[in-house]
Amino acid sequence: MEFKNPQQELERFRSRLAVAGGFVLLCFTLLFIRFVWLQVVQHDYYQTRAEDNRISLVPVVPNRGLILDRNGAVLARNYSAYTLEITPTKTRDLDQLIDGLAAVIDIQPKDRKRFRKLLEESRNFESLPIRTRLTDEEVAKFIAHRYRFPGVDIKARLFRQYPGGAFASHMLGYIGRINDKDLEKIEAKEAEANYRGTEHFGKTGLEQHYEFDLHGETGFEKVEVDAGGRAVRTLAHTAPVAGNNLTLTVDAELQRIAELAFGDRRGALVAIEPATGGILALVAVPNYDPNQFVDGIDSQNWKELNESPDKPMVNRALNGAYPPGSTFKPFMALGALTLGKRRPEQLISDPGYFNFGGHHFRDDKKGGHGMVDMYKSIVHSCDTYYYMLANDMGIDNISAFMGSLGLGSRTGIDIDGESEGVLPSQEWKKKRFKKPEQQKWYAGETISIGIGQGYNAYTPIQLAHATAIVANNGVVFRPHLVKYITDTRTGQKTEIEPQPTRDIGLKPEHVDVIRNAMIGVNKEGTGARAFAGAGYVAAGKTGTAQVFSYKGAEHKTERMQAHLRDHALFIAFAPADKPTIALAILVENGGFGAQAAAPIARQVLDYYLLGKRPNAPAPADEAAVEEDEE
Amino acid sequence: MNRGIGLATLRDLLQRLVAPIDGPLMVIAGLLLLLAVGVMGSASPERLNAQLLNVAVAIVLMRVLAQVPPQRLMHLAVPVYLLGMLLLVAVALFGDVSKGARRWLNLGFMRVQPSELMKIAMPLLLAWFFQKREAMPRLRDYAFAAVMLPLPVALIARQPDLGTAILVLAAGFYVIFFAGLPWKILIGMAVAGIAAAPLAWNLLHDYQRNRILTLFDPEKDPLGKGFHIIQSTIAIGSGGIFGKGWRAGTQAQLEFIPERHTDFIFAVFSEEFGLLGNLLLLLLYAALIVRGLMIAANAATLFSRLLAGAVTMIFFTYAFVNMGMVSGILPVVGVPLPLISYGGTALVTLFLGIGILMSIHGNRMLVQK
Hints:
The complex is a heterodimer of chains A (630) and B (369). With 630 residues, chain A is of the alpha+beta class. Chain A has 2 domains: 57-248, Penicillin-binding protein 2a (Domain 2), CATH 3.90.1310; 252-610, DD-peptidase/beta-lactamase superfamily (Beta-lactamase). The N and C termini of chain A lie far apart (146 Å). With 369 residues, chain B is mainly α. Chain B is built from 15 helices and 3 strands. In chain B, strands 1-2-3 form a 3-stranded antiparallel sheet, covered by helices on one side. In chain B, a hairpin with a 4-residue loop joins strand 2 (101-106) and strand 3. In chain B, helix 3 (48-66) runs parallel beside helix 15, helix 7 (150-158) packs antiparallel against helix 8 and helix 11 crosses helix 13. The longest helix of chain B has 33 residues, at 265-297. The interface between A and B is large, with 42 and 47 residues.
């Protein structure tokens, strides 16, 4: 056994202490280097990170711009209301939670359905409303029970409101919660930052087209937040700028009278101020209440709207394409004059039919109208005249002239999704059909084009637009609904399109011929009954569009039969010498134009020109007949 | 007259009360406690009073231990160690679970954490053992240590409480190191340790592995495991050289720093007092360690030397591991910042250590047996 040497042992121990001390020094130096690295070298980076941590930008959503009619009547506005909202990610059993809430606050089955739908569409971890428009009493009641419902909150939110309900709904459109498609639009505009905090987006109508004008600039609150995300205090505040207001060319009162004039019939009316292209009324009926879309529509109402055979969600004025029937004739006549294919006084003989290659194209009037000039052809709506004219002009000439009137192409109205309609031509047919034998245009097909049948299909706004062009002597203005946009901050007004887009080069003397003939229609022709005793001179033309008939007529139900009646049409402008309004009316399955459409025109023009208000919807004139069968 | 006697008696009493207390150690500890009060006043003012009470209890215990001669401590070595082991086994069998770990033993009237006792019991036992051999320790002596040391460490690591296990292991290792474990073996152990690392990896709990992984890439999981480290390094880094000022640290005051009154209190300190504050803290710890090592160097017996050296190095281990983990260079293990973090248990252990150092220092002149 080795004996202890105290001195040696102590030396050895002390050297070990020195090693330990050196180790301590090394480790502390290491720490110090780390501190210098973090606090000196990387200080700026960590300073920024710390600021990012504590400062949060909370968006303040701007008030959406108002929509006003030309006289300042409010068509779309905002109101503030309390909503009861659930953050689904913060709750475990949603159904149980909603059941619990229902015991405190009235929650209807439709509220649940709507919430379910929102939940399916929701994009992230946002809170979703289970009830909107809470009363003060309900708010107080919930607050007393709040502790029982984690993840449920009361929020004050601005809601869009359409005070007229279903009034002008196809024009105004509606807003709804932002979905993926809307997000794409926002990204395309690089407006993501401005849409932080925004929950709604224009889905149809003006709300959609002018979304980025109506939205406004999002304000921001710079707040200090703690680690839990709770705001501790506000550091800075940038106020939001409310969206721009839209002032329409539309006369709300005229719109109302036009809508009422339809009664419970389906159809569309477009009235345009010829000298500007400003739309005075744009009716599509039936319509729907856009208010139910704002907080999210419940699935049952949604289903009803979508599956109704009356198709209330279809904007017939822009998306319904109908054969123009006899309303096509004034345009044909004008084309013939412009192209030199007819002189006004030139007479044709109408034996009651037009013979083309052995086939008889029949006139409505048995035995024919006898000797017919251009005036008479329009006033009495003589088919034979136009069969012959179409044959003489040829499809390409017809197509080119009708195209210059804007038929068969989008008018460019400030509502998205407008239909093109069908302007038949050789080229159109080639594109439309696949088989070579179908692609060929047959001369016989041109004949019925002349009376507005055949492949012809135009939207009511196209007919109104073409009528306005004629009324305006060929100077074209793009139809538009918005007269000017008001910047809410500066009060500056930006006019929409006060300049004409083109002049199609009509000769005034040609237009006068057509005008006279159309005056004749309302004086002594098919519109005479509807315009009897009018205190102004209106130029017009009735039309009746055949609805494609089903084969197997034995299956027809009463409803189907109603849907197989002809569509009634009417175009007009007034006062005839200095038109301030041009319009086109379509009544689906209304029968003859003189029966269903002309009386509506009378009510609308009576109000617009004379300020006369009707006391009932325009009655269908069952005694009126089309094309002079007296 | 009576009054004079009374005054003299009082002075005498005071002198006797203060006598065992080592001035330098007390001053350094006092300065650290001052910093502690300051940080606690910022990180968690509502806990300041409770912590002051903890400090008072810890100082009383320190004073008591400072008067116990090392020889008496030596007699306590074996019983304390056995008691500690008994309690650890009891914890493993009947312990209370808190935050997923079985660390506490409910004695009915209070809950104790037996692993804490081992931080003192371990070096005490090993120092006693080497003193007993009275000769140059041989390999078989180290073999004894090699059995006594891992048992409690394994029990503590199983709780799981990696922080305490490391501290107990370190405490035992320091004794063996100071006893003169040959460098050959030390290096051999280091090599074996590195070789065994993959094996140890398999023995770790998932959460322990995650903590190590998180260290290398905290941003990988910024909201989960990495959150603590990210937020504490942001706090330290944003503090800069001079700090943001007392109670002006945004990371601390807005509660971005987790555990900001306990294990992560250093982040609060560092954010508000900056690099200069850190330097001061490092210097105070260094001073405490230097003073402790000096006491060890001048201790009378082998037992005293080994104990003093190990206890001193425990302070170092606490400080280094805590600051290292909070500043992101060591994995997160539950080790508080010595004398500054909130909590009575660690504070009492540390002041008991200081008490032992004072006792050893007070008995340095005693003649060897």
